[in-house]
C-alpha cells in the first residue's frame, strides 16, 4: 500500500512541477492573474522559510530579505526550467539573499573569539549545544520547505488543523468542503507531508 501511495505521490509531484512551470511561463508573458496566483501560493511559505533561517533577526530584516528574494525570483523567472519544485527554486534564491544579508551584517556581529572563555561556558551551560541548535533549525527549515511544496489545500488544511489547532469543522469551512471531504484532504495531506518530510530529513538526521 505504501509503495502505491509513493508512486501516486511521485506522479502527482511531476504533474505539479509541470503546472508550476506553466504558471511561471504565464507570469513571464505578463499574465497578472498568474502573478497573483504565484504570490498567493508561495509568498507566505517563503516568508516563513526566511524567518526561520534568519533566527533572531528583526522583523524588518526578514521583510527586506523576503522582498529581495521575491524581486530576484521575478527577474530570474525565465530561467526556471521545472527541474525542481518551484518553492525549492525560490528557497535557493532566498539562501543567496540571506547570505548577502549576513555578510552585510557581519561588521556589527559579535566576534565570539573576543568573548571570555568563562562566558562561553556559561552560554553553553544555559542552553542547547551548538550542534543541537543547528539540528533544530535545520529540521524547522525542512518542515517549512516541505509545506511550501505541498498543494495549497494540503498546506492550508495542515496548518489550520495542527499549527492553529482548529477543529475539522473549522477547517472544512476554511476549505469550503464537507466534513467528510475535509477528513479525506487531511488524510492525504498528512501522508504527502510524511513522505516528503522523510525524504527531506534524511540529510538532517
Total number of distinct structural domains: 2
Order of helical and strand elements: HHHHHHHHH
* Count of distinct strands: 0
User: CATH topology of the largest domain, which one?
Assistant: Rna Polymerase Sigma Factor, Chain: A
Morphology call:
globular
Q: Please name the CATH architecture of the largest domain.
A: Orthogonal Bundle
The proportion of residues in beta strands is: under 5%
The share of residues in helices is: over 70%
By CATH, the superfamily of the largest domain comes out as: RNA polymerase sigma factor, region 2, helix turn helix motif
Chain oligomer state = single chain
Report how far apart the termini are.
26 Å
Number of helices: 9
Low-confidence stretches: 107-130, 201-205
What's the pLDDT, averaged over the residues? 75
Main pleated sheet: none
Name its key features.
single chain; globular; 205 residues; Arc Repressor Mutant, subunit A; mainly alpha
Describe this structure in words.
This protein has 205 residues and is mainly α. It folds into two domains: 13-109, Rna Polymerase Sigma Factor, Chain: A; 150-205, Orthogonal Bundle (Arc Repressor Mutant, subunit A), CATH 1.10.10.10. The chain is 78% helix and 0% strand. The chain has helices at 2-28, 32-53, 59-76, 86-105, 117-125, 130-149, 152-163, 168-175, 179-201. The longest helix is centred in the N-terminal third of the chain and has 27 residues, at 2-28. The protein is globular, with a radius of gyration of 20 Å. Mean pLDDT is 75; it is low at 107-130 and 201-205.
Amino acid at each position: 500500500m505504501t509503495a502505491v501511495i509513493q508512486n501516486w505521490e511521485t506522479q502527482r509531484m511531476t504533474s505539479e512541477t509541470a503546472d508550476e512551470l506553466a504558471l511561471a511561463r504565464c507570469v513571464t508573458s505578463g499574465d497578472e492573474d498568474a502573478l497573483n496566483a504565484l504570490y498567493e501560493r508561495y509568498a507566505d511559505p517563503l516568508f516563513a522559510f526566511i524567518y526561520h533561517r534568519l533566527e533572531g533577526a528583526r522583523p524588518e530584516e526578514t521583510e527586506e530579505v523576503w522582498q529581495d528574494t521575491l524581486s530576484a525570483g521575478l527577474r530570474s523567472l525565465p530561467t526556471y526550467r521545472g527541474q525542481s519544485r518551484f518553492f525549492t527554486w525560490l528557497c535557493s534564491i532566498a539562501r543567496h539573499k540571506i547570505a548577502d544579508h549576513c555578510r552585510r551584517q557581519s561588521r556589527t556581529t559579535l566576534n565570539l573569539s573576543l568573548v571570555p572563555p568563562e562566558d562561553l561556558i556559561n552560554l553553553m551551560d544555559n542552553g542547547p549545544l551548538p550542534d543541537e541548535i543547528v539540528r533544530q533549525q535545520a529540521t524547522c527549515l525542512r518542515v517549512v520547505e516541505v509545506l511550501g511544496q505541498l498543494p495549497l489545500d494540503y498546506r492550508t488544511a495542515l496548518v489550520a488543523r495542527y499549527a492553529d489547532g482548529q477543529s475539522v469543522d473549522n477547517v472544512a469551512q476554511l476549505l469550503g468542503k464537507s466534513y467528510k471531504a475535509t477528513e479525506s484532504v487531511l488524510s492525504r495531506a498528512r501522508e504527502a507531508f510524511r513522505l516528503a518530510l522523510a525524504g527531506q530529513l534524511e540529510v538532517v538526521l
